[in-house]
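Support case: user asked for a sample of complex input and structure output to validate their parser. Sending the pair below.
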Amino acid sequence: MAQIRIENVRKEFGAFTAVQSSTFTIEDGEFFMLLGPSGCGKTTTLRMMAGLELPTSGQIYIDGEEVGQKPASQRDIAFVFQMFALYPHMNVRGNISYPLKSQRMKASEVKKKVDEVAEILGITDILDRPVGGLSGGDRQRVALGRAIVRDPKAFFMDEPLGALDAEFREHMSEELRALHDRMGATTVYVTHDQLEAMQMGDKIVVMNHGVVEQFGVPQDIYDWPATKFVAQFIGSPPMNFLDFNGMIGIGGTEVRVNDVVMPVPRSIEGANGPITFGVRPEHVKLEDSAPYRGRVIATEYLGTTQIVTFDTPNGLLKARVASHEVVNTGQSIGLRFDPRTITLFDAEKGGALRSEANEGVLNHG
Amino acid sequence: MSFSVTEPNKGTKWFAGVLVVGYALITIAPLLWIIATGFKSPADSISYPPKVVFDPTLEGYVNLFTDRTRATADMLEAEGEPQTWYERIVREQGTVIIGPSRYGERFLNSIIIGFGSTALCMVLGTAAAYAFSRFRVPLKDDLLFFILSTRMMPPIAVAIPIFLMFRNLGLNDTHLGMILLYTAVNLSLSVWLLKGFIDEIPVEYEEAALIDGYTRFQAFYKVVLPQAATGIASTAIFCLIFAWNEYAFAVLLTSGTAQTAPPLHPDDHRRGR
């Protein structure tokens, strides 16, 4: 049970920089998600926390103690690998008891602990089986058993559901979250699946190209992305971007997109030049009276909602509307955007322009 | 249309049976011939055309394990009647046993040198292969190629320098010298083979052991070694076969104390025994 602090951590592999100066804090007991596309440095960050890689520079604090250069065996943490990495030459009991044996725990005590953990995970009946013939779900449970058996300070999981089929993944993710809530241990979880991150995480760090793009609770990250990358990576379909040339002053509450005035949250950062107007699909309303118009080029029916794709003067735009609304391809429709949900981005640098709405969220950086 | 497996008819079965037995005979024949030769008299074993039917005798084995001398009639008289079956066998050739041969100690030398060099080869080879497989070694590819390149000429081509080196180092005719030599020759093979086997073992197993509180070395011998066991065993067999059968260096570098079994046989033939 511990707080984990990452300060200016950087990792280079030869000439390649995998992680560039990351800083964030994981509070005690949090279920924390490291989210990003493959190759973004999220796994490297996790491996540095675990001690499987040593950072090139920067500090890592686990429970207040600086452990950046310590080997994994001295950090008192548990790691669940994507392919589970169960020791193939031992049976289930051998695997789960292995971390206890390194602590020279008495055999009778080891047995008691292993039985306890097996009870929690519902694998009592397979304890004496070799790990070779186990199903994916059981392997996953054994890997978890090996992790929780010695009450480590923190759990690190590297895409632990990645090796399971889709149907079972849902079930295991619930089981994992329930296990976390029951144990209350700090958990750091790496995933590239934004849905999984939103579903399970208390907090999310979004990484790209070795840089922490944003850090916060799922809802803040979804509503107020700090960069265009986050806005695109999270949400399905992702946030719409309308590129235009314009300006907004400090304290401004509207922008002119192709001579159409669009209200936005009160700005506290001015900009002049190429700006990106960001709006989530579900915040687009179809209203014939609206001055900003788009031509329908496609519709996708999704049951309760439909995704309508518009061609607008500033690029393609997708709207999520109720499926009972009748929309025909080729039709020109007025689009109204909920002004409280708009994020403006610096089109070139990609960062969100600060406004009264997102100011508090962006501070984490 | 459905397919069914039908019982083959009798003729087909017979034909298949004859093929299998024929193939087995061809394969086994040389082994049978070797065994049979063991029970032939020296004259029968080199006769031409080769003898398929012969009088079996244990003469070869008695000769292998004893030193004998040709005896005159007087000496035979003095010896008296042969007491044992092996004395009788040598007496038929007009010789008497003067003591055990050196074969026993040569065989022991073969065991010491063969197993010694194999063990050393495995220890060094596994360590090197593990390092090459898991760590960032500067100039890794060049080093691996260099190790392989030591196999690119027959070792016996450098026999003279090795002979001189051994003489100056006092390694001539010593167990240590032969163990070092065979280890040096075999090491490249074992490093390459073992690296292949260790590469196949996912690195996550060791990382899991590191996380579970074990040191790098414990992770190596508790997790990597058990999984590499079959690979290590097969590599060890290759090394042992080479060291066991090696002839040229053994003839050149050993004469007495450290001589292995292979050089002894031609030596005996040369002396007509």
